[in-house]
Specification:
The complex is a heterodimer of chains A (377) and B (413).
Chain A (H helix, E strand, L loop, with lengths): L2 H14 L1 H12 L3 E4 L6 H6 L3 E4 L20 H11 L8 E5 L3 H13 L4 E5 L8 H22 L5 H27 L8 H9 L4 H15 L12 E7 L6 H8 L2 E6 L5 H4 L9 H11 L12 H12 L4 E7 L3 H16 L3 E7 L6 H14 L1
Parallel strand pairs in A: 1-2, 1-3, 3-4, 5-6, 5-7, 7-8
Helix pairs in contact in A: 1-2, 1-8, 1-9, 4-5, 6-12, 7-8, 7-9, 10-15, 13-14
Chain B lengths: L19 H17 L8 E4 L6 H5 L3 E3 L1 H10 L3 H10 L8 H12 L12 E5 L5 H13 L3 E4 L10 H22 L5 H23 L10 H7 L1 H5 L4 H19 L10 E6 L7 H10 L2 E6 L17 H10 L7 H14 L4 E7 L3 H4 L2 H12 L3 E6 L9 H16 L1
Parallel strand pairs in B: 1-2, 1-3, 3-4, 5-6, 5-7, 7-8
The chains are: A alpha/beta (377), B alpha/beta (413).
Bound molecules: iron/sulfur cluster (2 copies).
One iron/sulfur cluster binds next to helix 4, helix 5 and helix 14 of chain A.
Amino acid sequence: MNRHEKILAKFQAIADNPYAYARLVKEQTGKKLLGFFCSYAPEELMQAAGVIPFRLFGTSQDIELAESHLQSYCCSLVRGGLEDALRGRLDFLDGTVFPHTCDSIQRLSDIWRLNAGFDIHIDAVMPVKLNTPSARKYMIDVLGGVKADLESALAVTITDDDLAESIRLYNNIRSSLSSLYDLRSMNPDILDHSAVYHTMKAAMVMDRNELALDLEHLMDSLGSVKTEIKESGRKRIMLSGGICNLPDIYAIIDEAGGDVVWDDLCTGLRYATGRIEESGDPIEAIASRYSSRMICPAKHLSTTARGDYLFTEVHRKRIDGVIFLLLKFCDPHAFDYPNLKDLVDRANVASMLLEIEEQPAPREQLRTRFETFIEML
Amino acid sequence: MSDVNGKNIDSGKDNHRIKSVSRMKEILTGYYIDAKTARENGKKVAWITSGGPVEPLIAMDVIPVYPENHGAMVGASKMGVDLCQKAEEMGYSSDLCSYARADIACAVTQGGPIGGLPEPDFLVCCNNICGTVLKWYEVVARHYHVPLFILDTPFIHREMKKEAQQYVMDQIYEYIEFLEKQCGRKMDYDRMNEVGVLAVEGLRLWQAVLDTATHKPSPISAFDAFFHLGLIVTLRGTQVTVDYYKGLLDEMNERISNNIAMVPGEKYRLLWDNLPIWYRTRWLSDKFASHNACLVADTYTSAWSGVLPLIDENRFLETMSLSYSNVYINISHDMMINKLREMIEKYDADGLVMHSNRSCKPYSLGQYDLQKMVMDQLKIPTLIIEADMVDERHFAESQIETRIDAFMETLKS
Ligand code: SF4
Ligand code: SF4
């Protein structure tokens, strides 16, 4: 095994069993862990407070306890996350930070606070608009509030130096992750089909200092990004949507003759985009990133921001086909879908919609659908 | 919110019928004609969300149009399934809010009970009711190529923070600037104050109408309130609305003096939670009445006047930031329980009926916890009906009937 294979194997192990990793890292480092559900969680503040931010992905298995708190018409991330909490599977968490996103998360936050039994519960009710001066001012206020909440909940002081260090760390991490995306996009067969998935998932749960080093080594070992797309004769696929919790999807698309080369997923590239200014006020700098990076459909930058991004990337990355991955009952994404599909049609690129239910479709069925789609490209 | 034809909502036998209904229909018909002919009359039309601040629009002489009200009409006229399916064919998931689905389908096909809403000149979206409206209004803004103003009212989990209050306040002035730009003239603040005073007067009268239900037997039921709510939502801040509710209040008081009950032989008094099931209001009203049960009050129609204590009519604009942020569904369910407690006590309710409305996640998620709190803390029986406000495909009649019967049996025992 060469160096990058070793690192990727480690990421895969963590991605396959993040909870086991959480228990281990907690034991080894003595650090506290705070859970979060959404890429608007101000991780830089959590990191600066000395905790490990730990992203929750929910579960799709045996939803029972959550049934008595949540109706069936809410997404599997919300139901699965609560199930894990109620079953004690998240006993390694010291608390949770809830940034405001969609209606379901908004209600989950209170259900969680009243039932999940963690010591720390922080609501970050961020603005929904990211495009006006008053919203920006409010965003800065909210982040300041979260900082104060973290300080009092954890009995720590977060200094400007702590923040500056955390910001540098996150810039490193995000720049490595972005390079990894670029590398794969230019040269899709350089990595195993689900390597990026594993890396992203691990990146959202790992001790970030350890992660940053691993990523640096990974990128060194993989070499520099090419300037030309390497032709493989296979179809170039982009994933668009919210979260992808199905590692298998990458393998199945691969078997069906496609390379996933780009995405705008919330557990994908959206996490990695946006650099934070390293000079100036750190809180203001963190706030600025949210309005400059790729937008989530639960937030508003303009009525066309997401479509513009997708349309541009489809051209720029020479995409042959777009697979829309929507979690069933996820309103923000479902509202955007007809418009996004229309734009992709207009770019003369084919697309298909895969709705992910609580129980994902059987592998065979997915393979047939992907094969039919890719053959058609 | 209301069926302009009133056909499915008006409940009870002739002598129990509320006479003001015809006046209400007249006003609403006139209003829709004005809205439909706004262009010819040189008036602007704004689409606005049901929880949004309509008062500045009224002060600027803009005609407000409510897609949600339209959604309710679609539901009451039982056109929901067809329109929702049309939206689904356009790619909108069948799990999205049925108001949004029905309304988007109407905009594209000019279908529905009134052949589509008049086209907007601009849009005003206040997310104090849900995040759905943000996405829905983005769709509408793209469809009509019109400007969209978003009034962002941060959700209140435990308390409304000062910075959130300031943020909403800043936006109220941004809203007025936006209107000035769209209308090409300045806001007349004297006029704005008048509208504010009228709005508060209307809200007080509306609350007084709802409060007549504290009388036993109640002269009014939630099913009537669903209908009569129309003006407090759409034309709040106008004289016509104030006059209408004065008349309605007089009629209710008259019914009380003549001892006219909405449900003859009223024995059980229930509280309703969530939006109405528009296509089945008559059926539900009859069903409960057959058990001598009257739905005396609900969390939905009282949402608008529920924030009255936070409004100062003489400083209307200044208090808008609090009053528009603190509406019933923009607060956590541990804050909701306090409001429920107040209502249960005030109306002396024997039980709570909750509509778990798959269209409306912010209203419905959390209901199971709320139900448990009501049973534990307030010790009254509760019933949950799983349905949808507009999309009839989610109404399982026989199952719901059985559940209502069983619930009423517990109440009686
Ligand atoms: S944005 Fe969508 S996927 Fe995320 S929590 Fe909300 S409903 Fe679920
Ligand atoms: S989601 Fe609920 S509050 Fe929002 S528009 Fe639909 S019914 Fe109304």
